[in-house]
Amino acid sequence: MPKRASNSIPVTILTGYLGAGKTTLLNRILTNQHGKRVAVIVNEFGEIGIDSQLVINADEEILEMNNGCICCTVRGDLIRIFSDLMLKREKFDYLVIETTGLADPAPVIGSFFMDDVMRQQTQLDAVVTVVDALHIWEHWDAEEAQEQIAFADVILLNKIDLVSPEQLDELEQRIRSMTAFAKIYRTHNCDINIDAVLGIEAFDLKQLLSIDPEFLQEDTHQHDESVYSVSIAQGGIVNGDKLNRWLNQLIQVKGTDIFRMKGILDIDAQDRRFVFQGVHMILDGRPGRPWQPGEERKNEIVFIGRNLDAAQLKQEFRACLLEV
Q1: Element (H, E) at 93
Q2: What does the CA dihedral 57, 60, 62, 63 come to, rounded to 10 degrees?
C-alpha cells in the first residue's frame, strides 16, 4: 500500500446506520488527548442540523451539511465545503467526515478520486463503520447498512453491553461473510484507542474495486423512499414533565417505526440546553452545553423513520410547551 504523501490530508469517512454511535465516536476523537488536530464535516438527513450541536467543543473547524445525504443531493456541497476548509489548512492535520446514517459510502469515497482538488490534496485513510449490535438485525436488509459494512476498513461493533456474547459472535460471523479484510473491534460507547481509527492508512482502492468494480461511476444513490425525516423547530420553553410523558408514550406506540430521534431543547428555562437521542425503543437524555448570553433559545427535533405523521408530532410537541 503506498504511503501517504507528507503534504496530503488523511481523510477518515465515518459511517454507520442510524443511531449506531457515530457522533459518540466523533466526540471521542475530538476530546481525547491524542495530540492530533482534527477538522470535521458533519452531514445530516433532514432540514435541521442537530449533530453539530451534539459534538462536544464544536468550533469553527466543524462544518455542517444538512437537508440531504452526502452521497447524493448534497454531494457537490462536499467539494465546496472542502475548498472552504482548505483556507484553514494550517489549523488541522486530519479530516473526518461523519455521514448521515442513510449514506452509501461508495459515492462519498468516489469524490476523493473524481475531483481534481480533492484527489491532489487528500489521501483517503480509512472508512470506519459503527454497527449497532442491538438494532442492526432490524435493518440488515437495508442496502445502506450492507454497503456501510462491505466498504469498511474498520468496524466497531458498538453497544456490546446490550447483547449477549453469543449474539456478538453470530453478528461478527455474519459480518465476516461480507468483508474478510476489515478490522473488527467490540466497543461500549465507542470506547476505542483513537490510533485504531485515525491515521491508520487502511484504505485500499484495489480491494474496494474488487467489491464493486463500478463504484467510481456511481453518481446517485436511491434511498428507501419509505424512510424519511420529520423536523420540528419551535420556540418557547418546554415543560420537562410533559416532554418526558410524551416521549415515553411515543416510543411505546411508534418505537418500531422511529429509527432515530434527536433533539436540542430549552427545558424549564434551565441554564443548559437539554439533549436527547433515541433509537427505536431506547431513549437517552441529559444536559448539554450551556446556553450562551444573548443566544436564541430554540427547540429543534428530528425524527427519522417510517409511517411518521408530521402534523401529529408537531401538535403533540407544542402541547409540551409551558403556557406563557
Answers
A1: none
A2: 150
Strand order in the sheet with 272-279: 228-234, 299-305, 258-265, 272-279, 282-290
Taking the C-alpha atoms of residue 294 and residue 285, their distance in angstroms, rounded to an integer, is 25
Q: What percent of the chain has pLDDT over 70?
A: 81
Coarse DSSP helix, strand, coil percentages of the chain, rounded to the nearest 5 percent: 35, 25, 40
Burial class (CB in 10 A: 0-12, 13-18, 19+), 195: exposed
The alpha carbon of residue 69 and the mean position of all alpha carbons in its chain are separated, in whole angstroms, by 11
Which stretches in the chain have pLDDT values below 50? 1-2, 4, 45-52, 54-74, 220-221
Compute CA distances 207 → 130, 179, 258, whole Å.
20, 10, 35
Instruction: Name residues whose C-beta falls within 8 Å of residue 194's C-beta, 6 or more positions apart in sequence.
Output: 28, 29, 32, 34, 36
- Name the grid cell of 17: 446506520
DSSP H helical ranges for 177-226: 205-211
Lookup: cell for 169:
459472535
The residue type found at 306 is: R
